[in-house]
Write a structure and sequence with these properties.
The complex is a heterodimer of chains A (about 1300) and B (about 190). Chain A is mainly β and about 1300 residues long. Chain A is about 10% helix and about 30% strand. With about 190 residues, chain B is mainly beta. Chain B has two domains: about 140 residues; about 30 residues, no CATH class. The model of chain B has no long low-confidence stretch (mean pLDDT about 85). Classes of the chains: A mainly beta (about 1300), B mainly beta (about 190). At the A-B interface, strand 3, strand 4, helix 5, strand 15 and strand 24 of A face strand 6, strand 7, helix 1, strand 9 and strand 10 of B.
Chain lengths: ~1300, ~190
């Protein structure tokens, strides 16, 4: 029996005292409170009213105390531990203590795997510890500046554990199968009595040593990683754990939402890194930090949720915990007046409470979790008027990634400003909506059209009548709140100013070179430095070659290489380790970059290195033979120079006379600051005077009295006892002529004047669009230094003779294999200069082809230039004008040396810098630079190659075409924006060419690469302004003769075109473009084209005045037929029914009038079409200028094809004669703009008569009674009553009765 | 489980309360007009004598309080309430939807649906002298478990008591109290 028993008569005891009775004012006030609660964040500093138990800025170790609480670590963090035991040895020299770090966590929701712990680094007094190979004995420390300190080596040991005292967790990078259990290293601990279950901890042994500064336990920090870091996993672990967490049963957790949080947290976020540019943060949300178990579990859970921009929710209906991720989404329900009950209220946050800046504090992983912050401020333009600064302070303990902090801060700040809150009531059908869902609201009074809100609360309300309604409160939603734009990751500096690194890239895969059989068997391991601030590269090796999977192999650090001069490696720098401590075995190597605060990822392992060392003492000894072949060449000139350089360096700075040994001892003594001093005695007998001087291995003397440096390349100077040997390093280019006796080993370039200064000032550097075809320069004698040798390889640029002529051999490029041929003699050009300069720019001699013609000789294709004798050992260059030699219309090219041209949007190019192009482009690369040697060489003598006999042949007309429009399509560059910043763009010109012949004249006829154009071929109508183009079956040049336009009816010529007036289309050299046919053809008449032979010459072999293959004559049977356009009036069509009637009598007074022409027509820009009534009475004028511009039609008159349609707006008079006149400019040919209709000015060409109207017939009545029968008049068409009278006359014509037409006695009816 | 009522122009809804009183019994009652069985549990129909306050579902986990008021309880039964440990009892309220025409449970997914789960925080007993028979009104106030977590602090302190609580026999923290007051002559010659 319960207290419920005995209830009766409940129907009379209804109670409604719990029913809400709040006023609307209270409701509004509550909205603001809800917004406050929604934005409440346990991490917001504004809301924090107590000091946290863990100081995130200085997570140091904590002295022993019974009320210390062990934190929980998720992800990675730098922190100290709590001392929970300490033992001192009997002699007081060794202190061993236990640092309890964190609770170990459970299984991950995401994959059911257990938490894994990794000790990444251990720090003592802010210095990173590097252990010996056992993984616990400290070898040395590294401070933030990268300085090594070995003072504590062997005196400190750190043992790391995770889970219990039998679970060692060896720091990253070390392997030790014999790593001791904690109860064996911590004094007085036993395996069963001291288990430290579910704890991460370290046992530290410190041995006192005053000399090395170990007198205290020091401050310890650990970088410890827990593999559990996905927010959903973390929440699930903390919510369910009964030791340190909330102890919520797993059935009371909505695991689906946590899994969704994991999934969303794993999505990447792009950001810009200060050091490396655009990067991607792989996991947008991670939990990295400690949870303070002294805080309430709710506070810690909300802390985790807030670190992932999520709301912790509790479904009171289901009694389950979960999260709502604050992210973008889409509406799940729509509300408008049809499903909203009652009022819709809107409220928002007050001006004083609006945040406009956020400061997010968090432990920064790049500075060992020291406190850092980011601040974000909204643009001033987004503030409200009179809005004061209001900073939202947020502090996150469990994140250490600045991008995550920025992202969270941005969401919080933007969300705080999207603060419109709406509340309304709806019916029971929306009971399935939950807080966190997105809805959209349409309300005309509020101006909302599908405006999206996020539900922040739903109240189920049931009144006394049982009506169930849902009262919703929803917060304004804006997808921009979740924007990931503008994330930026700064490289942070710590308090010492040392740059810390967030990311070091992956180094290149090690390449291993073996030196197995050697006096020092070794390997060279070579890699490339990764990106980031890389202070050193660590080299690691492993013997676990049989182990599958590199992650399962144990590697050992074998060496650390640092930049020779300190600092950091430049990314991509090759770093090589010379390593000889290898036994015979198989190895893998891998490397990674490090700096004082972090380490980068390991490289891909090297290939398998099977190393078998064979040590050979004195592998290269006195008896070692030198390979006289390859080695001899190797020790050629370059090697000797290198040796001299080394010797120079070796003896540099030496004072007095010393033997090599003495010099060596001095260098050693200097390098070691006197630490190594062998003394001045020379232990090698006779070393000071037993220097053997060799020439490429051949002993010259072992008792030299002097060493004499000779040759242009070497200069020896002496100051006091110091001898300086300077070696000029301007080496021969590869393939140079071997030096001869007395010649300089190295070209003496001391007088060389590089760059633009070696141009003769009068040289035209650039001319626009040269049109004359150019010959080729086949060879120059002396050869140009660029190629060093001529085409035969016999003559060199550094062996120019100082006597005799210099030569240029010319040729031409043909269209087939017969390149560089001539079919006749070459000629000397007129008034052209050839100038000889020394390389310092001094003009030595000028020869003009006119005034110094005798100094030029042309033999076959060879031009000899008779300069005066030159000097030995001198650098020269020659400049030549274009056209020194000519052949037909060919000219020899200029030799200008290098020059520049500059792009100019207006004139294409300029020879000076322009606003558009200040840098310019180097062109005119033809140079003729050479030098005379130190000795005389034989003068040149060349006779060239005799010209050849041309072949025979012809060409034929292929087709013809007409075109009126030619459009230049040359690409050009322009600046799209000249201010911020200017952008150089390229597009094609679209300019109509007014004279195609003139335009082609400006093009390079040979290459046609400078300009381009398109031809719009006439199709259909051939106008008189159409240009004739003949196309042949071969590429041609223009010939002579006359092209005739023949009348097809009379076979007489209507006009001619001179063949010489044609221009070859450079873009299609089979086409010749002539003039138009205006005045040479008759409008509307059929024509054909004929022409004699040789109006063109084929280019099949080569264009040449000595070899021309003319066309066969063009005759009528070639059918080059066309009909010129016409513009004739054909006929008038008048019809009221648009049926094409051509009867010009009795035309309806509302008729449409058509004027049909012989060809397509268009309205001209001016002119009229007028309808006249006979007697020159204007009925209506149609002005063609009043037509619409886009299609030149209107509703009164228009054109369709070849017909003008007129639709008079004033009815024509019946029974009248009309005619149409057209002015001379009113009608034109749409294709031929010059072709206009002459007009109609007479009264007869287009005339018609209108219908006179119904005629009143006469009715005759005989012996009848009008009163009985009436009088019926039958008309020829339906009629209506008009005005006037009907009269009845007797046979005498006397009116006996008059009846007005308006009388009711007069009726009309249909007659069939 | 989503509850889709969009196709219904009218419905009847009733609340079913389940109060588990430790050491007493599980009380099940509803504002339905007759006794009704849901999931093999029969709820006593007390009709309008049962009044349940509105509930609100919030985006953030927010402590929620709900009142269940039962009228018409005979005065003689009051002692049962006062002597039993009502406080701390688990209260679960379910909402069921019925056909308004015939009172049949709607056969749709998610029906009946949970309305509230929490723990009784307090109760109130008041005389009701308005009727001919003397009776009382009992009001039970329940809170969601959020409140409990708001005040819950867990974790392990570094002392032998806490360690023994979680891991009996483990002496790892036994020396902490002593160490807190100890000094070591580290390096001092002996």
């Amino acid at each position: 029996m319960s207290f419920l028993d005995g209830i009766k008569n409940f129907g009379n005891k209804t109670r409604g005292f719990l029913k809400s009775n709040r006023s609307s004012l209270i409701t509004t006030a509550a909205l603001a409170y809800l917004v406050y609660r929604l934005n409440r964040n346990v991490n917001k500093g504004n809301d924090i009213d107590e000091i946290p138990n863990i100081d995130e800025g200085v997570r140091l170790q904590i002295p022993p105390a019974a009320d210390n609480k062990i934190p929980v670590l998720y992800g990675t963090a730098f922190f100290g531990g709590i001392i929970t035991d300490a033992q001192q040895s009997n002699n007081n020299q060794t202190m061993t203590f236990c640092l309890t770090l964190a609770e170990t966590t459970g299984h991950q929701l995401s994959d059911s795997s257990g938490s894994g712990y990794t000790f990444k680094d251990v720090y003592l007094n802010d210095q990173r510890l590097v252990f010996k190979s056992d993984g616990f004995t400290v070898d040395y420390t590294v401070d933030r500046g990268g300085n090594f300190d070995t003072s504590i080596s062997g005196l400190v040991k750190v043992y790391c554990y995770a889970g219990n005292t039998a679970s060692p967790s060896i720091p990253t990078g070390y392997t030790n199968a014999s790593y001791p259990n904690a109860y064996t290293v911590m004094p007085n601990w036993g395996s069963s009595t001291h288990q430290m279950e579910n704890l991460a901890f370290a046992v530290v042994e410190v041995n006192y040593n005053r000399e090395r500064g170990i007198t205290q336990l020091g401050t310890w920090n650990f970088e410890l990683e827990n593999s559990m870091k996905q927010p959903g996993d973390v929440l699930y672990d903390y919510m369910t754990n009964t030791t340190y967490g909330a102890g919520i049963h797993e059935d009371d957790i909505d695991q689906t939402t946590l899994t969704a949080l994991n999934t969303f947290s794993l999505t990447g976020v792009d950001y810009e890194d200060q050091g490396t540019g655009v990067e991607t943060l792989a996991d947008r949300y991670q939990i990295n930090g400690l949870l303070d178990t002294a805080k309430t579990v709710m506070e810690n859970i909300e802390k985790i949720a807030s670190s992932t921009a999520s709301y912790l929710k509790y479904d009171i209906h289901e009694g389950k915990w979960g999260v709502v991720i604050n992210k973008s989404g889409s509406s799940t329900a729509s509300f408008d007046d049809s499903n909203v009950i009652g009022n819709v209220n809107v409220a928002s946050t007050g001006l004083r409470d609006l945040y406009n800046k956020v400061k997010v504090e968090f432990p920064h992983r790049d500075i060992r979790d020291s406190a850092d912050f980011v601040t974000i401020e909204i643009p001033a333009a987004d503030r409200n008027a009179n809005e004061q600064d209001n900073t939202l302070q947020i502090q996150y303990d469990t994140i250490n990634e600045p991008i995550q902090a920025q992202l969270l801060g941005l969401i919080e700040l933007k969300q705080s400003r999207v603060n419109l809150v709406i509340d309304f009531e709806t019916d029971f059908t929306y009971i399935n909506l939950k807080a966190g869902d997105l809805i959209d609201v349409t309300n005309s009074r509020l101006g909302f059209t599908s405006k999206v809100f996020r539900i922040i609360s739903i109240q189920e309300t049931q009144d006394t009548d049982g009506a169930l309604t849902m009262k919703m409160v929803a917060l304004e939603y804006d997808a921009n709140v979740y924007s990931e734009a503008d994330l930026y990751r700064y490289t942070r500096t710590d308090s010492n100013g040392i740059i810390t690194i967030g990311s070091i890239g992956t180094p290149g895969t090690p390449q291993v070179t073996k030196f197995e059989t050697n006096s020092r068997p070794r390997v060279e391991v070579e890699t490339t430095a990764p990106t980031g601030l890389v202070e050193a590269i660590e080299f690691w090796k492993t013997l676990d070659v049989a182990v599958s999977g590199d992650e399962n192999r144990s590697y050992q650090l074998i060496a650390t290489e640092r930049p020779a001069n300190g600092g950091v490696y430049t990314s991509g720098t090759t770093v090589t380790l010379d390593y000889d401590a290898l036994a015979e075995d198989e190895y893998f190597f891998k490397v990674r970059g490090i700096n004082s605060t972090t380490t980068g990822p390991f490289s891909t392992p090297s290939g398998l290195v099977d190393f078998t060392p064979v040590q050979t003492t004195d592998a290269i000894g006195d008896e070692t033979e030198v390979d006289g072949g390859a080695l001899g060449r190797l020790l050629g000139a370059l090697s000797l120079v290198e040796l001299l350089l080394k010797l120079d360096g070796f003896f540099s700075g030496m004072t007095g006379n010393k033997s090599m040994f003495q010099r060596l001892t001095d260098l050693i003594k200097d390098a070691t600051n006197g630490a190594i001093d062998i003394g001045a005695s020379d232990p090698l007998p006779g070393a000071d005077n037993n220097i053997t001087v060799k020439d490429e291995g051949t002993t010259l003397t072992s008792t030299p009295a002097e060493i004499n440096f000779v040759g242009n390349a070497v200069t020896a100077t002496q100051t006091a006892d110091a001898v300086t040997v300077t070696v000029n390093t301007n080496l021969f280019s590869a393939g140079g002529t071997p030096p001869e006796a007395g010649d300089g080993l190295i070209w003496d370039g001391s007088a060389w004047v590089p760059g633009s200064t070696y141009y003769a000032p009068e040289i035209v550097k650039y001319t626009v669009a040269p049109v004359l075809p150019k010959m080729n320069i086949v060879n120059r004698y002396p050869p140009d230094r660029t190629t060093h040798l001529d085409s035969t390889g016999e003559y060199a640029s550094d062996q120019a003779p100082i006597t005799g002529d210099y030569y240029v051999l010319y040729g031409r490029t043909a269209t087939d294999s017969t390149a560089n041929v001539f079919y006749g003699a070459l000629s000397l050009g007129s008034d052209k200069n050839v100038k000889l300069y020394s390389s310092d720019g001094t003009l030595k001699e000028t020869l003009n082809t006119t005034s110094n013609a005798s100094d030029f000789t042309i033999t076959n294709n060879a031009l000899s230039i008779g300069f005066a004798n030159r000097d030995l050992k001198t650098d020269y260059y020659i400049l030549m004008d274009e056209g020194v030699v000519t052949y037909c219309d060919y000219v020899s090219p200029a030799i200008t040396g290098k020059t520049k041209r500059y792009e100019d949007c207006g004139t294409d190019y300029s020879d000076t810098a322009t606003d558009y192009d200040a840098v310019g482009e180097e062109i005119g690369s033809t140079t003729w630079n050479f030098n005379t040697p130190a000795y005389t060489t034989s003068a040149y003598s060349f006779t060239g190659t005799a010209h050849t006999t041309p072949s025979t042949g012809a060409c034929n007309i292929d087709t013809f075409l007409f075109a009126k429009t030619f459009t230049e399509t040359t690409p050009f560059k322009f600046y799209s924006d000249t201010t911020n910043p200017p952008t150089l763009c390229t597009k094609n010109k679209d300019i109509e060419i007014t004279n195609i012949g003139t335009f082609i004249g400006t093009m390079n006829a040979d290459t046609a690469t400078d300009k381009t154009f398109t031809v719009t071929e006439d199709t259909g109508t051939i106008c008189l302004e159409s240009v004739l183009i003949l196309q042949f079956d071969k590429e041609v040049t223009v010939g002579s003769g006359t092209i005739s336009i023949m009348n097809d009816v009379t076979d007489l010529s209507e006009g001619t075109i001179a063949a010489s007036a044609g221009v070859v289309n450079p873009l299609n050299k089979t086409q010749v473009i002539y003039s138009n046919i205006d005045g040479k053809a008759l409008l509307g008449r059929a024509h054909y084209i004929i022409a004699p032979a040789n109006i063109v010459f084929a280019n099949e072999e080569i264009k040449d005045c000595n070899h021309q293959l003319g066309n066969n004559a063009i005759v009528k049977s070639d059918n080059l037929n066309f009909t010129a356009a016409s513009m004739n009036f054909v006929k008038l069509i008048v019809s009221s029914a648009n049926n094409g009637l051509t009867d010009f009598e009795d035309i309806d007074t509302q008729t449409e009038i058509r004027l049909q022409f012989s060809d397509s027509i268009a309205f001209g820009s001016t002119g009229t079409i007028t309808i006249f009534k006979s007697g020159a009475v204007t009925h209506q004028v149609f002005n063609v200028a009043h037509t619409f511009l886009d299609n030149q039609i209107n509703e009164l008159f228009w054109i369709s094809g070849n017909t003008v349609y007129l639709n008079p707006t004033v009815d024509l008079d019946p029974g009248s004669t009309y005619y149409v006149n057209v002015s001379s400019t009113a009608i034109v040919n749409p294709d031929c703009t010059d072709l206009t209709f002459a007009g109609i000015t007479d009264t007869t060409t287009a005339t018609f008569d209108t219908d006179p109207g119904p005629a009143a017939p006469t009715a005759t009545i005989t012996n009848g009674s009008p009163s009985n029968t009436g009088i019926v008049q039958i008309f020829d068409r339906p009629v209506e009553k008009g005005s006037g009278n009907a009269v009845i006359k007797d046979s005498n014509g006397t009116i006996i009765h008059t009846i007005p037409a308006s009388s009711s006695a007069v009726t009309t009816e249909d007659y069939e | 489980m989503p509850l889709n009522l969009s196709s219904y122009r009218n419905i009847q809804t009733n609340l079913f309360c389940k109060l588990v009183v430790p050491g007493y019994q599980t009380l099940t009652f509803s504002d339905y007009h007759i006794n009704y069985t849901i999931d093999s549990v029969t709820y006593q129909g007390i009709g309008e004598l049962l009044s349940v306050s509105n509930t609100t579902s919030n985006l953030r986990a927010t402590s929620e309080e709900l009142s269940v008021s039962i009228s018409g309880i005979p005065s003689g039964n009051v002692s049962d309430i006062l002597t039993k440990k009502i406080k701390g009892s688990e209260l679960q309220i379910t909402r069921a939807f019925f056909n308004a025409a015939n009172g049949a449970l709607l056969s749709i997914t998610g029906n009946p649906a949970g309305k509230f789960k929490g723990v009784v925080n307090n109760f109130n007993v008041a005389d009701d002298l308005s009727g001919s028979d003397s009776s009382v009104i009992i009001t039970v106030t329940a809170t969601s478990v959020i409140d409990q977590l708001n005040n819950k602090v867990t974790g392990r302190r570094t002392n032998p008591i806490d360690q023994a609580e979680f891991y009996p026999g483990d002496q790892s923290f036994d020396r902490v109290p002593a160490l807190a007051k100890s000094n070591f002559n580290f390096g001092a010659p002996k």
